[in-house]
Design goal:
Rossmann fold; single chain; elongated; 31% helix
Length: 303
């Protein structure tokens, strides 16, 4: 139900009151994953207008082959909002295309095309495109990591999975150094699977450094992922150093769990900044101005 603002002119003596009805502007945010308060606040701070009604529907399923809930929420906001913002990965952007959205929309995802039609741009995190730089960080450390020692930990259910695996194979020269994780025996994303994903039966002993994919499900469940990665580091044989490169600054902590000191590097975007920029772009589109596509730079932090 749309909100309205009613203004009554009581200044004119002896005349009937004049009533004007102004529809409130609304932005509808649809996310495949849960949005913590910090990211919701960052988006609203980016909008920076208390007169704009921001409605958020998050945790709308991450299954790449099951877009129904995402599509339903996008259809809902197509009827009730003026601009739609999608977050939680490429899967949410794709849902806006397949629903399809009938209002202008902006997105935050790993990789986004140039704005066209109702897609007005957003924030591209350049997630898998930055894996080349993450490999460079690992090979440049003093622990002696070579290309043959570096693996990718990825989500096979991610919408960006085909592009990420192709990119990774080109970077390291083989498809055998990419390891799926975060999926249970039914093929659904499940953070409880991390405990076994980091075991020797899944990751060979020759792999001593891992790049964690910039997948939104991993970020959303990073507390359990970091705990499993810490256990993998601790289980290394004597004289062998294991190391993790995480894809965003958010991995500095997750639910009170922090990466192992001196065995981890964060290299990726600051997510509150990304959400604030998305809010700014959504508000700009709402004002009637053209949209834009921002490719967010990465920040490195050695822990």
């Amino acid at each position: 139900m749309a909100k309205i603002k009613i203004e009554i002119d009581t200044e004119s003596i002896g005349a009937a009151p004049t009533i004007s009805v102004i529809a409130a502007s609304k932005i509808g945010v649809v996310s495949s994953i849960a949005l913590p308060n910090a990211l919701e606040s960052a988006f609203k701070n980016g909008v920076n207008n208390s007169a704009i009604d921001v409605k958020i529907k998050d945790n709308c399923s991450y299954k790449k082959n099951s877009l129904q809930k995402l599509e339903n929420e996008i259809r809902h906001f197509s009827n009730t909002a003026d601009v739609i913002a999608t977050t939680g990965g490429l899967v949410a952007y794709q849902a806006a295309l397949s629903a399809p959205a009938t209002k202008p929309f902006v997105s935050l995802a790993a990789e986004l095309p140039a704005p066209t039609g109702l897609f007005k741009g957003g924030v591209s995190l350049e997630s898998y495109q930055s894996n080349k730089d993450r490999i460079g960080i690992l090979t440049g450390l003093s622990f002696g990591f070579g290309l043959a020692n570096i693996g990718l930990f990825y989500n096979p259910n991610s919408a960006m999975n085909p592009q990420e695996l192709s990119n990774w194979s080109n970077l390291v020269g083989t498809a055998n150094q990419a390891f799926p994780g975060g999926v249970n025996s039914s093929g659904d994303n499940d953070a409880n699977a991390y405990a076994t994903d980091f075991g020797l039966t899944k990751i060979p002993a020759t792999i001593t450094a891992l790049v964690i994919s910039g997948d939104p499900f991993f970020q959303d469940t990073r507390a359990k992922l970091i705990a499993a990665a810490n256990a993998w580091i601790a289980a290394g044989t004597a004289g062998t150093v294991r190391y993790i490169c995480y894809p965003a600054l958010a991995y500095q902590s997750g639910g009170g769990i922090s990466p192992t000191p001196n065995r981890a590097t964060l290299f990726g975007p600051d997510l509150p900044t990304a959400y604030s920029l998305l809010g700014q772009i959504a508000a700009t589109v709402l004002s009637g101005a053209g949209g834009s596509l921002i490719r967010l730079p990465n920040i490195r932090r050695d822990l």
